[in-house]
Every structure is written in C-alpha cells, then in structure tokens.
Specification:
Elements lengths: L2 H20 L5 H18 L6 H12 L1 H7 L2 H25 L2
Helix pairs in contact: 1-2, 1-5, 2-3, 2-5, 3-5, 4-5
Amino acid sequence: MDKRILIGLVSGLILGAIEMFAFNGGTSLLIIPALLGGLIGFLFTTSIPLNRYVLGAIAGAVFFIAIAAQSGLWLDDIVTGAITGLLITFITGLVGSKLK
C-alpha cells in the first residue's frame, strides 16, 4: 500500500471527526470522508492528466450526496463535500511530497 493512500485515509478520518462534532452529525460524517480520503490518496498514485484538485472537489461533492439525501440540505452538504475533497487533496499532496 502506498503511503499516500494511508495519508488520504487518515486526513479524511480527521476531517470527518471535525465535521462530525462541528455539524452534530452521525457516523456517516466520519466514514464518508475517510473513504473519500482513501480514494483521493489512490488518485495520487496514478498518473491522471487532469487537475487533482478539481477531481478531489468533484469526488467530495459526489460522496456527500449520500449525506445530503439523509439531511435534505442538498446545497450545503454538496458544497461541504467539495471543500472537504479540496482539503484532503491539499493535505495528501503536501504531506505525501514531504514523505518521499
């Protein structure tokens, strides 16, 4: 397993814990960002010609559709997912480059 996948998973777990306590959410706010972080970490191991930050934001918005369906706050949750995806992408890229 590449370190960047683990870095993405851990950063998603930490951001998910922060969101869970900040937004008084359930465990889905903890699990979905962790899965998102693992996916974004995997994106860093492949050579994709597209911008990783855009892909991270799109993946975050798509992953948070499940949370939006539960709460009914579609725009808020999808924007939160996009921002979470951007943050995980930034953290994974920053920490991953330092550990090489």
